[in-house]
From TrEMBL:
Its main location: other. The keyword DNA-binding does not apply. It is found in: Gas vesicle. Keywords: Gas vesicle. It comes from the Bacteria. This is Gas vesicle protein GvpL. Belongs to the gas vesicle GvpF/GvpL family. GO terms for cellular component: gas vesicle. It comes from Guptibacillus hwajinpoensis. InterPro entries: GvpL/GvpF. It holds the Pfam family GvpL_GvpF. The keyword RNA-binding does not apply. GO terms for biological process: gas vesicle organization.
Length: 267
């Protein structure tokens, strides 16, 4: 056995009576196991120090994309599987401890915070919502019906012809600004409505088309912590929005449940 520990997540010890799934660890050899520490139990695997030193892993992450993809997928799939069985505080990819003592010390220092987090996560799930839009379709709607644009056009018509030429050149810039404002208003309204059936809702950074692989632009990216009893209502609301707004250029992508990375923290 090696002297490093790879940490997947932390669970309440009273849930550790449920046996772990049979899963090979980060090295593909040693199986994951539980490391209890009073009220908190860590789910870990052993790693050989020589093969998984900080320098070796850093080099792999920066220079070996195939290794990185394989290991990141392993981490994600393992944590996702554990989420189905336990109330878990998931750890980030490649969280390593030198030995059991150092991990136990860290858990002990954060015991109160972990207790609060377990209470928050118990009976709740993390779900993600991404909202996409057809910019050209919505831009056309803004150009035709936005009151600010209408007022600007009326203002331009009242100007001398020479002034009109220069003011019309500014219209595209104004339309683009109103387009972004309209997209934000729309998404914020959806977000606030969905928060009403959630414990918490948080806004994340949007992704570019190079990441999503979609022709539509991502306008919104958010996560929600949902009571289990509210999940069906949440999904039903999103389905209704999809039906109501699809013809006007909006698309919704909901996914989950996910490990609760956004509503738990552990350093």
């Amino acid at each position: 056995m090696g002297d490093l520990l790879y940490l997947y997540g932390l669970i309440p010890t009273n849930e550790a009576t449920h046996p772990l799934p049979s899963v090979k660890g980060f090295d593909g050899e040693h199986e994951i196991f539980m490391l209890p520490n009073e009220d908190v139990t860590a789910i870990v695997c052993h790693l050989d120090h020589a093969a998984y030193s900080e320098e070796t892993i850093s080099d792999k992450i920066n220079n070996d994309m195939e290794w990185l993809q394989e290991k990141a997928f392993h981490h994600h799939e393992t944590v996702q599987q554990l989420t189905k069985q336990y109330t878990i505080v998931p750890l980030k990819f490649c969280t390593l401890y030198k030995n059991e003592e150092s991990l136990r010390e860290t858990v002990e220092k954060n015991k109160a915070k972990l207790s609060e987090t377990f209470a928050l996560l118990d009976g709740n799930e993390e779900w993600n919502l991404k909202i996409y839009c057809d910019d050209e379709q919505i831009k056309q709607q803004v150009s035709e019906s936005n009151p600010v644009i209408k007022a600007k056009r009326d203002e331009i018509r009242a100007l001398p012809r020479g002034r009109q030429f220069f003011e019309k050149k500014k219209m595209d810039e104004l339309i683009n600004q109103e387009l972004e404002d309209e997209k934000n208003r729309f998404c914020e309204d959806i977000h606030e409505k969905l928060k009403s059936v959630s414990l918490y809702g948080s806004i994340k950074k949007t992704w570019g088309k190079d990441v999503t692989g979609r022709k539509e632009k991502m306008a919104w990216n958010s996560v929600f912590l949902l009571p289990l009893a509210n999940v069906d209502q949440f999904l039903g609301n999103v389905e209704q929005y999809e039906g109501d707004f699809q013809e006007t250029g909006w698309k919704f992508e909901v996914s989950g449940p996910w490990p609760p990375y956004h509503f738990s923290s552990f350093s």
